[in-house]
Design a protein that fits this description.
The chain is an alpha+beta fold. The protein starts with a strand and ends in a 5-residue tail after the last helix. The chain binds iron/sulfur cluster (SF4) and FE2/S2 (inorganic) cluster (FES). The site of FE2/S2 (inorganic) cluster has 12 residues, from loops.
Protein backbone atom coordinates (compact mmCIF):
# COMPACT_ATOMS: atom_id res chain seq x y z
CA UNK A 1 0.00 0.00 0.00
CA UNK A 2 1.17 3.48 -0.81
CA UNK A 3 2.05 5.95 1.95
CA UNK A 4 2.07 9.68 1.36
CA UNK A 5 4.40 12.27 2.81
CA UNK A 6 4.86 16.01 3.00
CA UNK A 7 8.34 17.35 2.30
CA UNK A 8 10.16 20.66 2.23
CA UNK A 9 12.38 21.16 -0.80
CA UNK A 10 15.26 23.62 -0.87
CA UNK A 11 16.04 24.06 -4.55
CA UNK A 12 18.80 25.95 -6.37
CA UNK A 13 17.14 28.50 -8.69
CA UNK A 14 19.29 30.22 -11.30
CA UNK A 15 17.75 31.89 -14.36
CA UNK A 16 20.78 31.61 -16.65
CA UNK A 17 24.55 30.98 -16.53
CA UNK A 18 25.35 34.56 -15.48
CA UNK A 19 22.63 34.84 -12.81
CA UNK A 20 23.98 34.61 -9.25
CA UNK A 21 21.34 32.06 -8.23
CA UNK A 22 19.92 31.23 -4.80
CA UNK A 23 18.12 28.53 -2.84
CA UNK A 24 14.30 28.74 -2.79
CA UNK A 25 11.98 26.72 -0.56
CA UNK A 26 8.90 24.83 -1.76
CA UNK A 27 6.46 22.48 -0.05
CA UNK A 28 5.86 19.08 -1.70
CA UNK A 29 2.56 17.79 -0.33
CA UNK A 30 0.91 14.37 -0.60
CA UNK A 31 3.89 12.67 -2.27
CA UNK A 32 3.45 8.91 -2.72
CA UNK A 33 6.36 6.73 -1.59
CA UNK A 34 5.89 4.81 -4.87
CA UNK A 35 6.95 7.84 -6.91
CA UNK A 36 10.41 8.27 -8.32
CA UNK A 37 12.34 11.38 -7.33
CA UNK A 38 11.79 12.90 -10.77
CA UNK A 39 8.04 12.16 -10.61
CA UNK A 40 7.99 14.02 -7.31
CA UNK A 41 9.66 16.99 -9.07
CA UNK A 42 7.06 16.74 -11.86
CA UNK A 43 4.27 17.07 -9.25
CA UNK A 44 6.00 20.04 -7.62
CA UNK A 45 6.44 21.67 -11.04
CA UNK A 46 2.74 21.25 -11.88
CA UNK A 47 1.94 23.08 -8.63
CA UNK A 48 4.44 25.86 -9.45
CA UNK A 49 2.99 26.31 -12.95
CA UNK A 50 -0.54 26.65 -11.46
CA UNK A 51 0.81 29.42 -9.23
CA UNK A 52 2.51 31.02 -12.27
CA UNK A 53 5.99 30.38 -10.89
CA UNK A 54 8.65 29.10 -13.31
CA UNK A 55 8.98 25.31 -12.97
CA UNK A 56 12.28 23.87 -11.73
CA UNK A 57 14.51 23.06 -14.71
CA UNK A 58 16.22 19.69 -14.38
CA UNK A 59 17.75 17.38 -16.95
CA UNK A 60 16.32 13.94 -17.74
CA UNK A 61 15.71 11.64 -20.66
CA UNK A 62 15.47 7.85 -20.30
CA UNK A 63 14.32 7.80 -16.65
CA UNK A 64 15.66 4.27 -16.35
CA UNK A 65 19.32 4.71 -15.44
CA UNK A 66 20.79 4.51 -18.94
CA UNK A 67 21.37 7.98 -20.40
CA UNK A 68 23.14 9.73 -17.50
CA UNK A 69 21.35 13.06 -17.93
CA UNK A 70 19.42 13.26 -14.63
CA UNK A 71 22.40 14.77 -12.85
CA UNK A 72 21.56 16.46 -9.59
CA UNK A 73 22.92 16.76 -6.10
CA UNK A 74 20.31 15.53 -3.61
CA UNK A 75 21.01 16.60 -0.03
CA UNK A 76 24.72 16.81 -0.78
CA UNK A 77 25.00 13.42 -2.51
CA UNK A 78 25.23 13.00 -6.31
CA UNK A 79 22.09 11.08 -7.39
CA UNK A 80 20.84 11.00 -3.79
CA UNK A 81 20.89 8.67 -0.79
CA UNK A 82 20.96 5.25 -2.44
CA UNK A 83 23.80 3.17 -3.84
CA UNK A 84 24.46 2.38 -7.49
CA UNK A 85 21.48 4.19 -8.94
CA UNK A 86 20.81 7.42 -10.82
CA UNK A 87 18.47 10.18 -9.61
CA UNK A 88 15.71 8.91 -11.92
CA UNK A 89 15.84 5.50 -10.22
CA UNK A 90 15.68 6.96 -6.72
CA UNK A 91 12.36 6.24 -5.03
CA UNK A 92 10.56 8.46 -2.56
CA UNK A 93 10.42 5.54 -0.08
CA UNK A 94 14.03 6.51 0.70
CA UNK A 95 12.62 9.64 2.40
CA UNK A 96 10.20 10.13 5.28
CA UNK A 97 7.39 12.49 6.09
CA UNK A 98 8.70 15.91 7.17
CA UNK A 99 12.11 15.55 5.54
CA UNK A 100 13.92 18.58 4.16
CA UNK A 101 15.60 17.80 0.81
CA UNK A 102 18.29 20.01 -0.74
CA UNK A 103 18.42 19.91 -4.55
CA UNK A 104 21.40 21.48 -6.32
CA UNK A 105 23.22 21.24 -9.65
CA UNK A 106 26.63 19.60 -10.10
CA UNK A 107 29.21 22.13 -8.89
CA UNK A 108 32.27 22.18 -11.16
CA UNK A 109 33.91 24.87 -13.28
CA UNK A 110 33.81 22.57 -16.31
CA UNK A 111 30.03 22.01 -15.88
CA UNK A 112 28.54 25.53 -15.93
CA UNK A 113 24.93 25.85 -14.79
CA UNK A 114 22.50 26.40 -17.69
CA UNK A 115 19.45 26.95 -15.50
CA UNK A 116 18.43 25.81 -12.00
CA UNK A 117 19.64 22.21 -11.59
CA UNK A 118 20.62 21.64 -15.23
CA UNK A 119 24.32 21.91 -16.11
CA UNK A 120 26.22 21.94 -19.37
CA UNK A 121 28.12 18.63 -19.61
CA UNK A 122 29.39 19.11 -23.17
CA UNK A 123 32.95 19.08 -21.77
CA UNK A 124 32.48 15.27 -21.58
CA UNK A 125 31.33 15.21 -25.23
CA UNK A 126 34.44 17.11 -26.29
CA UNK A 127 36.66 14.59 -24.45
CA UNK A 128 34.89 11.75 -26.28
CA UNK A 129 35.25 13.60 -29.59
CA UNK A 130 39.06 13.79 -29.17
CA UNK A 131 39.54 9.99 -29.19
CA UNK A 132 36.65 8.14 -27.61
CA UNK A 133 36.43 5.78 -30.55
CA UNK A 134 38.44 3.32 -32.63
CA UNK A 135 39.40 4.31 -36.17
CA UNK A 136 40.92 1.03 -37.33
CA UNK A 137 39.56 -0.10 -40.68
CA UNK A 138 38.20 -3.54 -39.98
CA UNK A 139 36.41 -4.16 -43.26
CA UNK A 140 33.09 -6.00 -43.16
CA UNK A 141 31.52 -7.45 -40.04
CA UNK A 142 33.81 -10.26 -38.88
CA UNK A 143 32.46 -13.67 -37.88
CA UNK A 144 31.65 -13.97 -34.21
CA UNK A 145 34.71 -15.16 -32.22
CA UNK A 146 37.02 -14.51 -35.23
CA UNK A 147 39.15 -12.21 -33.03
CA UNK A 148 39.92 -13.99 -29.77
CA UNK A 149 39.39 -11.83 -26.67
CA UNK A 150 40.35 -13.24 -23.31
CA UNK A 151 37.65 -13.43 -20.63
CA UNK A 152 39.60 -11.07 -18.36
CA UNK A 153 39.88 -8.39 -21.05
CA UNK A 154 36.26 -8.77 -22.13
CA UNK A 155 35.09 -8.42 -18.52
CA UNK A 156 37.28 -5.36 -17.92
CA UNK A 157 36.05 -3.68 -21.08
CA UNK A 158 32.41 -4.40 -20.22
CA UNK A 159 32.87 -3.07 -16.67
CA UNK A 160 34.34 0.17 -18.04
CA UNK A 161 31.66 0.42 -20.73
CA UNK A 162 29.01 0.66 -17.99
CA UNK A 163 29.91 4.37 -17.55
CA UNK A 164 26.93 6.49 -18.64
CA UNK A 165 28.76 9.84 -18.59
CA UNK A 166 26.57 11.31 -15.86
CA UNK A 167 29.32 13.36 -14.20
CA UNK A 168 28.57 12.29 -10.62
CA UNK A 169 32.27 11.43 -10.22
CA UNK A 170 33.17 15.05 -11.01
CA UNK A 171 30.47 16.45 -8.72
CA UNK A 172 31.59 14.27 -5.80
CA UNK A 173 35.31 15.00 -6.14
CA UNK A 174 36.70 17.95 -4.13
CA UNK A 175 38.97 18.66 -7.12
CA UNK A 176 36.15 18.26 -9.69
CA UNK A 177 38.32 15.63 -11.34
CA UNK A 178 37.00 13.75 -14.37
CA UNK A 179 39.60 11.00 -14.11
CA UNK A 180 37.13 8.19 -13.34
CA UNK A 181 35.07 9.06 -16.42
CA UNK A 182 38.11 9.38 -18.71
CA UNK A 183 39.72 6.25 -17.26
CA UNK A 184 36.53 4.27 -17.95
CA UNK A 185 36.46 5.43 -21.57
CA UNK A 186 40.19 4.80 -22.09
CA UNK A 187 39.92 1.24 -20.72
CA UNK A 188 36.65 0.39 -22.39
CA UNK A 189 38.29 0.80 -25.80
CA UNK A 190 41.96 0.26 -25.02
CA UNK A 191 41.89 -3.31 -23.72
CA UNK A 192 40.16 -4.85 -26.73
CA UNK A 193 42.21 -5.91 -29.79
CA UNK A 194 40.35 -3.49 -32.10
CA UNK A 195 41.08 -0.48 -29.88
CA UNK A 196 44.46 -1.51 -28.45
CA UNK A 197 46.33 -0.34 -31.57
CA UNK A 198 45.47 3.29 -30.82
CA UNK A 199 45.61 3.04 -27.02
CA UNK A 200 48.67 5.30 -26.62
CA UNK A 201 47.36 8.06 -28.88
CA UNK A 202 43.91 7.78 -27.30
CA UNK A 203 45.01 8.14 -23.67
CA UNK A 204 47.24 11.13 -24.47
CA UNK A 205 44.53 12.94 -26.45
CA UNK A 206 41.74 12.32 -23.95
CA UNK A 207 43.79 13.31 -20.91
CA UNK A 208 45.00 16.45 -22.69
CA UNK A 209 41.40 17.44 -23.49
CA UNK A 210 40.33 16.66 -19.90
CA UNK A 211 42.97 19.13 -18.66
CA UNK A 212 41.95 21.75 -21.23
CA UNK A 213 38.33 21.56 -20.05
CA UNK A 214 39.39 22.64 -16.57
CA UNK A 215 38.78 19.43 -14.60
CA UNK A 216 41.00 18.93 -11.55
CA UNK A 217 43.41 16.14 -10.74
CA UNK A 218 42.89 13.00 -8.70
CA UNK A 219 44.28 13.20 -5.16
CA UNK A 220 42.91 9.84 -4.02
CA UNK A 221 39.76 10.85 -2.13
CA UNK A 222 37.84 8.03 -3.89
CA UNK A 223 34.61 10.02 -3.68
CA UNK A 224 34.16 9.37 -7.42
CA UNK A 225 33.91 5.63 -6.91
CA UNK A 226 31.48 6.09 -4.00
CA UNK A 227 29.21 8.35 -6.07
CA UNK A 228 29.29 6.40 -9.34
CA UNK A 229 25.85 4.90 -10.11
CA UNK A 230 27.47 2.25 -12.30
CA UNK A 231 30.09 1.03 -9.85
CA UNK A 232 33.11 2.07 -11.94
CA UNK A 233 36.17 1.18 -9.87
CA UNK A 234 38.93 3.62 -9.05
CA UNK A 235 41.45 1.00 -10.21
CA UNK A 236 40.63 2.20 -13.74
CA UNK A 237 42.33 5.49 -12.81
CA UNK A 238 45.58 3.67 -11.88
CA UNK A 239 45.32 1.73 -15.14
CA UNK A 240 44.91 4.98 -17.10
CA UNK A 241 47.91 6.55 -15.33
CA UNK A 242 50.06 3.52 -16.22
CA UNK A 243 48.86 3.67 -19.82
CA UNK A 244 49.62 7.39 -19.98
CA UNK A 245 53.14 6.89 -18.58
CA UNK A 246 53.80 4.13 -21.10
CA UNK A 247 52.47 6.31 -23.92
CA UNK A 248 54.74 9.19 -22.87
CA UNK A 249 57.97 7.15 -23.09
CA UNK A 250 60.19 7.76 -26.14
CA UNK A 251 59.46 5.08 -28.77
CA UNK A 252 63.01 3.65 -28.81
CA UNK A 253 62.99 2.72 -25.09
S1 LIG B 1 32.44 7.08 -14.06
FE1 LIG B 1 30.45 6.73 -13.03
S2 LIG B 1 29.99 8.71 -12.09
FE2 LIG B 1 31.55 9.11 -13.63
S3 LIG B 1 30.47 9.66 -15.49
FE3 LIG B 1 30.80 7.44 -15.58
S4 LIG B 1 28.94 6.55 -14.68
FE4 LIG B 1 28.93 8.71 -14.08
S1 LIG C 1 17.15 10.07 -16.93
FE1 LIG C 1 18.50 8.71 -17.97
S2 LIG C 1 19.81 7.97 -16.39
FE2 LIG C 1 18.33 9.17 -15.34
Amino acid sequence: MSETMNLTLHVWRQKNPSDKGKMETYEAQGISDHMSFLEMLDVVNEGLIKKEIDPITFDHDCREGICGTCSQMISGVPHGPDDLITACQLHMRKFKDGDHIYIEPWRAKAFPVIRDVMVDRTAFDRIIQTYGYTSTHTGGVPDGNAIPVSKGKADMSMDAAACIGCGACVAACPNASAMLFVAAKVSHLGVLPQGEVEAARRVKAMVEQMDKEGFGNCTNHYECEAACPKGIKRTFISRMNRELQKASLPCDL
